[in-house]
């Protein structure tokens, strides 16, 4: 036993030393995001704010996004209750994703890069690295939890109690640990770091979608969901520490499983079998298009399946909506007054969220071209008669088509399931859903174009496009909750597009954003065709 | 002789770093040019500029009489390139990648490919991520040698190959050479360059410091001489062109400027030569001179 983990402490200290900047950035970033919005919520709570928000968040679309609250009457809905309700799930998710990326980056990725091989040639135990990476992530999340708790306490709001603050921090820290163990297990099973990251994030996404369904239909089922253990602690209201205990037990079990799996495999190998490949290339591979399709195939199919499941999961909620409305007089009046049905309002909100996620895929594909370039995979191809234009436009083409198919699957999955669960009472048919989805096509094109622009002129900035997507997503996500000023909202590209079917289609906006996107792609091409290729940097 | 590659006062800056300050050399038709220099001297940068992967800041660079940046595609139809570190897609097999490279180059001889796969003892059914450095290099070499080109550019092509495979590579290059193709061979393995190259170009800190045939280069340097005479040998020390003179009884070792070798011999015969050995400098000696100098 000792042998396996020998000198893990040295690696652990080494990691802290190596990562301290990242750690500070991580704790400050996630921590401030999680803890520093109290004044904004105090603002919202003024006057009838709390009551209004309580009603708004009874909407199934909102529950499916931010989660439920244990509070049953408006009177009990305090600032603390609202803060936990709106922030906890999202912040927990954030902490979880960070932990997944970090753990896989320090375990499987280092193996793939050949660093582990070097480290293991010293007097270091076979599994010391995994233990060190896990220990680091636990330490980071403990610090993160404490930082958030402290931050909340400092704001000194009556309904944000000290105990609740610690529970809030602990929930987010625990979410990080859960993410870390999921990452560690997938790092053992998958054959490479990229597939480990993809599958671990896929699991987190799936957990999120499943809980969206169970939160709306029967919140007790969410208690079986590891992601549920973070926000079902209900800080500032029920102050339920039990889920934290579940999460601890789960994490320990998953960690033991991961170490057992790691003990049973060779370095660089996974548990999914490797097949012998082909001695000769298929005809379909023998072109730039064929090659790029092949290179992007795994990731693309993974995301597309994810979109379909996501659409179907949200679609399944439609069946419960009318029942829900019957039970809530105030909501019923609200929808009757606005002249929009609850299904239409839900579709409009959720479509914006889904298409923002669909936009990730084209960005991934466009950024892939630069990754290929900097890994020097293309050096030999650059010495053939293949033009840079072929590389560029093939990539853009695949990205756009992936965006089109992604939209089809997300909107179609949503619509197909929704129409079938609503049965005869359906007020919308599948074409309404598809129209609502493709209404956002210009935003997908716009994100693709931004990635293309970066590829052409400043390829290292390609990752910033994700940041902007995340920023616009958060802006739109919180638009329903916080009352943001118009100009601020408009910095997100989706905000320019009307939300169908609630609003009606706006052709000029649709065409304008599309044309801007195409223009950006062409400008990107001008850069790509004349810049130095970056190799090995 | 027609010039296949012609580079004149080529310059390239990366940010503030002057990677190439003055690169001038040519590769003639049917000629093998060895391109040598220490790490970081600018060999790969020069080659990337030749391939149009990066854009030069100043100077002229032509292949087949065409500009390497503007007419890169025309040029690329007739060249083959193997980088020093062949990076491959882990999810494809070696065989698939070779086929792809051949297809994207255009042309290519399937029989030649199969012959080379056998000669280099490559398992083409393995996924590329399982290949060692040497095996990745073989994939690049097989793909480049299976197609018909007029100019072959090799950037440290044999790094990671075992000596047997190195020999196979050298044989294959000689074969190409016999058919009258031009080759630009950048390499650290100086014996390889000595065996294959007609001319040698030495680059240091972005500048060409020496170029010419091996004989020409040798002429500029010194040979290591061992001389034993009947009479006292000490008089040789003062002869022009003699350096690092060490005497032991009537035997001396010294280095001699090749251009004075005749004068030195004339002086030596006056003393009654018992033994005279002159070893010409190896490429390594030449190279080290520039390394250190």
Features:
heterodimer; A: about 525 residues; mainly alpha; 24 helices; about 70% helix; globular; B: about 290 residues; alpha/beta; Rossmann fold; Alpha-Beta Plaits; 2 domains; six-stranded mixed beta sheet; four-stranded antiparallel beta sheet
How would you describe this protein?
The complex is a heterodimer of chains A (537) and B (293). By secondary structure, chain A is mainly α. Chain A has two domains: 20-271, no CATH class; 286-532, no CATH class. Chain A contains 24 helices and no strands. Chain A has helices spanning 8-35, 38-45, 49-56, 60-66, 79-106, 108-113, 115-120, 128-155, 162-189, 193-217, 228-231, 242-263, 288-315, 318-327, 329-338, 342-358, 360-374, 379-382, 388-422, 430-438, 441-457, 464-479, 486-489, 507-530. In chain A, helix 17 (360-374) packs parallel to helix 21 (441-457) and helix 19 (388-422) runs antiparallel to helix 24 (507-530). The longest helix of chain A is centred in the last third of the chain and has 35 residues, at 388-422. Chain A is globular and about 70 Å long. The two termini of chain A are 40 Å apart. In chain A, 46% of the residues are buried. The model of chain A has no long low-confidence stretch (mean pLDDT 88). Chain B is α/β, with parallel strands linked by helices. Chain B folds into two domains: 3-217, 3-Layer(aba) Sandwich (Rossmann fold), CATH 3.40.50; 222-292, Alpha-Beta Plaits. Chain B is 34% helix and 32% strand. Chain B has helices spanning 43-51, 72-76, 94-105, 110-119, 133-146, 163-178, 190-196, 214-219, 261-270, 283-292, and strands at residues 3-14, 17-28, 32-36, 58-63, 66-67, 79-82, 151-155, 182-186, 199-204, 207-213, 222-229, 242-248, 251-257, 273-279. Chain B has a six-stranded mixed sheet with strand order 6-7-8-3-9-10, sandwiched between helices. In chain B, helix 3 (94-105) runs parallel beside helix 5 (133-146) and helix 4 (110-119) runs antiparallel to helix 5 (133-146). The model of chain B has no long low-confidence stretch (mean pLDDT 89). Chain B: This is ABC transporter. Chain B: Pfam families: ABC_tran (PF00005), DrrA1-3_C (PF13732). Chain B: Keywords: ATP-binding, Nucleotide-binding, Transport. Chain B: Belongs to the ABC transporter superfamily. Chain B: Residues 5-230 form the ABC transporter domain. Chain A: Keywords: Membrane, Transmembrane, Transmembrane helix.
């Amino acid at each position: 036993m000792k042998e396996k983990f020998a000198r893990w402490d040295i690696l652990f200290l080494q990691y802290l030393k190596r990562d301290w900047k990242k750690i500070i950035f991580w704790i400050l970033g996630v921590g401030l995001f999680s803890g520093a919005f109290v004044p904004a919520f105090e603002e919202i709570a003024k006057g009838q704010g709390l009551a209004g928000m309580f009603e708004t968040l009874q909407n199934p679309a909102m529950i499916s996004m931010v989660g439920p609250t244990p509070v049953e009457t408006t009177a009990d809905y305090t600032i603390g209750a609202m803060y936990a309700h709106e922030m906890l799930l999202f912040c927990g998710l954030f902490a979880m994703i960070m932990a997944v990326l970090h753990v896989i980056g320090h375990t499987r990725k280092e193996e793939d890069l050949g660093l582990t091989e070097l480290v293991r040639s010293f007097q270091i135990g076979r599994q010391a690295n995994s233990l060190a990476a896990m220990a680091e992530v636990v330490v980071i999340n403990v610090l993160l939890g404490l930082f958030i708790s402290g931050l909340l306490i400092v704001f000194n709001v009556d309904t944000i109690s000290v105990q609740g603050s610690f529970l809030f921090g602990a929930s987010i820290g625990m979410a990080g640990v859960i993410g870390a163990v999921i990452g560690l297990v997938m790092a053992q099973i998958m054959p490479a770091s990229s597939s480990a990251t993809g599958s671990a994030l896929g699991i987190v996404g799936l957990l999120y979608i499943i809980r969206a369904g169970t939160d709306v239909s029967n919140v007790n089922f969410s208690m079986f969901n590891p992601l549920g253990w973070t926000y079902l602690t209900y800080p500032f209201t029920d102050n339920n520490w039990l889920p934290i205990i579940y999460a601890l037990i789960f994490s320990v079990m998953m960690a033991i499983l991961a170490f057992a799996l790691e003990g049973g495999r060779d370095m660089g190998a996974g548990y999914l079998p490797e097949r012998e490949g082909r001695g000769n290339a298929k005809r379909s591979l023998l072109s730039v298009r064929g090659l790029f399709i092949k290179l992007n195939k795994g990731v693309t199919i993974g995301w597309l399946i994810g979109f379909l499941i996501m659409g179907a999961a949200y679609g399944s909620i439609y069946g419960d909506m009318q029942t829900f409305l019957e039970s809530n007089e105030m909501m019923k009046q609200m929808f009757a007054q606005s002249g929009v049905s609850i299904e239409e309002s839900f579709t409009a909100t959720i479509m914006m969220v889904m298409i923002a996620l669909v936009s990730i895929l084209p960005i991934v594909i466009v950024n892939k071209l630069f990754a290929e370039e900097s890994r020097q995979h293309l050096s030999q191809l650059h010495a053939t008669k293949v033009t840079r234009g072929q590389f560029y436009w093939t990539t853009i083409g695949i990205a756009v088509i992936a965006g089109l198919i992604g939209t089809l699957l997300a909107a179609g999955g949503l619509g197909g399931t929704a129409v079938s669960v609503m049965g005869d009472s359906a007020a919308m048919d599948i074409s309404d859903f598809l129209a609502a989805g493709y209404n956002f096509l210009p935003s997908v094109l716009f994100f693709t174009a931004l990635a293309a622009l970066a590829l052409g002129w400043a390829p290292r900035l390609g990752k910033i496009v994700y940041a902007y997507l995340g920023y616009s997503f958060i802006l739109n996500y919180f638009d329903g909750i916080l009352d943001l000023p118009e100009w601020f909202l408009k910095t997100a590209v989706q905000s320019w597009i009307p939300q169908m079917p609630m609003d009606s289609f706006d052709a000029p906006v649709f065409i304008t954003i599309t044309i801007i996107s195409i223009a950006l792609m062409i400008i990107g091409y001008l850069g790509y065709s004349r810049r130095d290729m970056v190799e090995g940097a | 002789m027609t010039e296949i590659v012609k580079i004149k006062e080529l310059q390239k800056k990366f940010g503030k770093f002057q990677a190439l300050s003055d690169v001038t050399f040519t590769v003639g038709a049917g000629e093998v040019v060895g391109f040598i220099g220490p790490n970081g001297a600018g060999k790969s940068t020069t080659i990337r500029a030749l391939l149009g992967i990066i854009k030069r800041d100043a100077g002229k660079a032509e292949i087949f009489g065409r500009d390497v940046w503007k007419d890169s595609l025309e040029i690329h139809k007739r060249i083959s390139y193997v980088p020093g570190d062949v990076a491959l897609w882990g999810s494809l097999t070696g065989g698939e990648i070779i086929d792809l490279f051949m297809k994207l180059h255009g042309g290519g001889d399937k029989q030649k490919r199969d012959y080379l796969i056998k000669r280099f003892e490559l398992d083409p059914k393995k996924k590329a991520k399982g290949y060692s450095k040497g095996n990745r290099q073989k994939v690049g070499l097989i793909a480049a040698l299976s197609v018909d080109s007029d100019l072959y550019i090799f950037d440290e092509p044999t790094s990671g190959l075992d000596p047997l495979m190195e020999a196979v590579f050298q044989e294959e290059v000689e074969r190409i050479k016999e058919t009258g193709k031009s080759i630009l061979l950048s390499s650290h393995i100086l014996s390889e360059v000595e065996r294959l190259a007609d001319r040698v170009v030495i680059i240091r800190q972005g500048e060409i410091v020496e170029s010419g045939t091996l004989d020409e280069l040798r002429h500029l340097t010194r040979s290591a001489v061992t001389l034993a005479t009947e009479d006292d040998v000490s008089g040789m020390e003062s002869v022009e062109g003699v350096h690092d003179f060490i005497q032991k009884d009537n035997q001396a070792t010294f280095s001699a400027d090749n251009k004075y070798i005749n004068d030195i011999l004339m002086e030596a015969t006056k003393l009654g030569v018992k033994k005279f050995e002159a070893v010409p400098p190896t490429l390594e000696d030449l190279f080290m001179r520039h390394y250190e100098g």
